[in-house]
């Protein structure tokens, strides 16, 4: 009989295969579990590639993206965190911890000889019940501008509380809320540019309207332009040599070399004239601009900016309302960008170019300052999470308390459903309730608190009507939202959830 598998292949069937899947997924959940909540730890990741770059982060999606995983079930958990990161921006650790706990509970049920289809049916009933429990308790302050801004501030502080920016979370929450409110309901975060500049402290970071390009203005170029018309291009502005690989030009005298150079110069002069014919006063190019064309531009008072990085140039075209051009024969078909003022500014010791009064009025730049590249990278990830969650909340304005409160509310409702449900499904529903309690338990464990004591106290509190208790990991106790909290568990209160989408990995708020 012919062999189907190779010599070193491993064949796993039935129980063993299922067990291997459970183990792989639970290992991933345990790996990121310690990063959950305001007291979550950072991980140091070292790449296996050249240069051995090091990343210091506690962002669940970043950690999971960096792992090389064999287990198919574990890969599903990584995909869950990626989807959460793309759709909401935060809550990446929470979804993996919850999925891992559901699998842990499912494994126990399988060992009790309950069929997987029965478990799945029970889990689906429990998920619907939990979602409805949250929907009944949402609050919506979109009609009251002041209360809604307070909600956004609390959500931003919630998201930032478990990150590196937690020391200055009020300052950065203000930055994030101001930036997102400029978008006027759009979820296109392309309009918000985050620029990292080493030096200074995190509190030196600031929000500026318009767009900042990380380039210097060349020598002899105008340093300030008003009512700018900008041509954004991706074209070769080095001397137009014969650009065919391996091509050679043979000449029999030096005068002919001079003729070739003169012809090249003439070709470049014609190209520059075509660009000037667009009626512009600023030319931004993705590629190099050699000295000769730069001189030609300076002579007619056009600001020429070379080597603008690709992401920078795409965002510049977006916010100024222009398009990236590469041919210049038909000026009428090229869409130019517009802004009120272009000027050179200083940030730390670096010179940059500031485009203010851009066509896309909601565009703004957040300049992050910090001691090192690692701090800046993590600050950028933290701020990106906050911006994503805030932009989603502006669209769907329903909010909830945080601090483990949503999980306990859901667990209580699911528990009651389990008691009413006959048959083996009730075991699965009960298991779902236990899995939900894993998130507040993990938050308390990461803060070094007695999670068993705290969760049992919370469970007792939640059996009272209209309970607002959550975990306060700073004082290590239960905490109630007070009347003046506008529906927010104040203090560093653990995990947060924004309506039914899931909101922050973290504490304080909604």
From TrEMBL:
* Entry keyword annotation includes Chaperone: yes
Give an example GO cellular component term for this record.
chaperonin-containing T-complex
Superkingdom of the source? Eukaryota
Name the InterPro entries for this protein. Answer: Chap_CCT_beta, Chaperone_TCP-1, Chaperonin_TCP-1_CS, Cpn60/GroEL/TCP-1, GroEL-like_apical_dom_sf, GROEL-like_equatorial_sf, TCP-1-like_intermed_sf, TCP-1_chaperonin
Cell compartment(s), UniProt: Cytoplasm
| Leader peptide range in chain numbering | none
Q: What SUPFAM superfamilies would the database entry show? A: GroEL apical domain-like, GroEL equatorial domain-like, GroEL-intermediate domain like
Q: Which GO terms describe its molecular function?
A: ATP binding
The entry's keywords: ATP-binding, Chaperone, Cytoplasm, Nucleotide-binding
Q: Which PROSITE patterns does this one have? A: TCP1_1 (PS00750), TCP1_2 (PS00751), TCP1_3 (PS00995)
User: What Pfam families does the record tag this protein with?
Assistant: Cpn60_TCP1
Region annotation (Disordered) maps to: 481-510
PANTHER family, alphabetized:
CHAPERONIN (PTHR11353)
Q: What does this protein do?
A: Molecular chaperone; assists the folding of proteins upon ATP hydrolysis. Known to play a role, in vitro, in the folding of actin and tubulin.
NCBIfam families in alphabetical order: chap_CCT_beta (TIGR02341), thermosome_beta (NF041083)
> Per the similarity annotation, which family is this?
Belongs to the TCP-1 chaperonin family.
Protein name, please? CCT-beta
Say which species the protein is native to.
Urochloa decumbens
């Amino acid at each position: 009989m012919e062999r189907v598998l190779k010599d070193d292949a491993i064949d796993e069937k039935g129980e063993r295969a299922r067990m291997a899947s459970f183990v792989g997924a639970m290992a991933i959940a345990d790996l990121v579990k310690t990063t959950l909540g305001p007291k979550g730890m950072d991980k140091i990741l070292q790449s296996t590639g050249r240069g051995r770059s090091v990343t210091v982060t506690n962002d669940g999606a970043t950690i999971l993206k960096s792992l090389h995983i064999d287990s198919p079930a574990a890969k599903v958990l990584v995909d869950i965190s990626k989807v959460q990161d793309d759709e909401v921006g935060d809550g990446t650790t929470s979804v993996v911890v919850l999925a891992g706990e559901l699998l842990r509970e499912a494994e126990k049920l399988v060992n009790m000889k309950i069929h997987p289809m029965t478990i799945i049916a029970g889990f689906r009933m429990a998920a619907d019940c939990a979602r409805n429990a949250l929907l009944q308790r949402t609050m919506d302050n979109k009609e009251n501008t002041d209360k809604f801004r307070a909600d956004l501030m609390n959500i931003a502080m919630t998201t930032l509380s478990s990150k590196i920016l937690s020391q200055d979370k009020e300052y950065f929450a203000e930055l994030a809320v101001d930036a997102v409110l400029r978008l006027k309901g759009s979820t296109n975060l392309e309009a918000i540019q985050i620029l990292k500049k080493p030096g200074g402290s995190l509190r030196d970071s600031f929000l500026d309207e318009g767009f900042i390009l990380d380039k210097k203005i060349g020598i002899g170029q105008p340093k300030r332009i008003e009512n700018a018309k900008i041509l954004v291009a991706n074209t070769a502005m080095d001397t137009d040599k014969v650009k065919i690989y391996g091509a050679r030009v043979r000449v029999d005298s030096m005068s002919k070399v001079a003729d070739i150079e003169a012809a090249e110069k003439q070709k470049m002069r014609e190209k520059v004239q075509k660009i000037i014919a667009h009626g512009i006063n600023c030319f931004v190019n993705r590629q190099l601009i050699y000295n000769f064309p730069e001189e030609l531009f300076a002579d007619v008072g056009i600001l020429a900016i070379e080597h603008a990085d690709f992401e920078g140039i795409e965002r510049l075209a977006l916010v100024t309302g222009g398009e990236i051009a590469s041919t210049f024969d038909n000026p009428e078909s090229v869409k130019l960008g517009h802004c009120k003022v272009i000027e050179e500014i200083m940030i730390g010791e670096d010179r940059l170019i500031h485009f203010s009064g851009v066509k896309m009025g909601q565009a703004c730049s957040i300049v992050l300052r910090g001691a090192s590249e690692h701090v800046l990278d993590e600050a950028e990830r933290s701020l990106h999470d906050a911006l994503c969650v805030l932009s989603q909340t502006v669209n769907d304005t329903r909010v909830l308390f945080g601090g483990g409160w949503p999980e306990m509310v859901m667990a209580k409702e699911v528990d009651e459903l389990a008691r009413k449900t006959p048959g083996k499904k009730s075991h699965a529903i009960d298991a779902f309730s236990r899995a939900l309690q894993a998130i507040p338990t993990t938050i308390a464990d990461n803060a070094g608190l007695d999670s068993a004591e705290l969760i049992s106290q919370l469970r007792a509190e939640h059996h009272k009507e209209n309970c607002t208790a959550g975990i306060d990991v700073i004082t290590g106790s239960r905490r109630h939202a007070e009347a003046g909290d506008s529906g927010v568990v104040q203090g560093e209160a653990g995990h947060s959830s924004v309506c039914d989408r899931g909101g922050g990995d973290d504490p304080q708020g909604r």
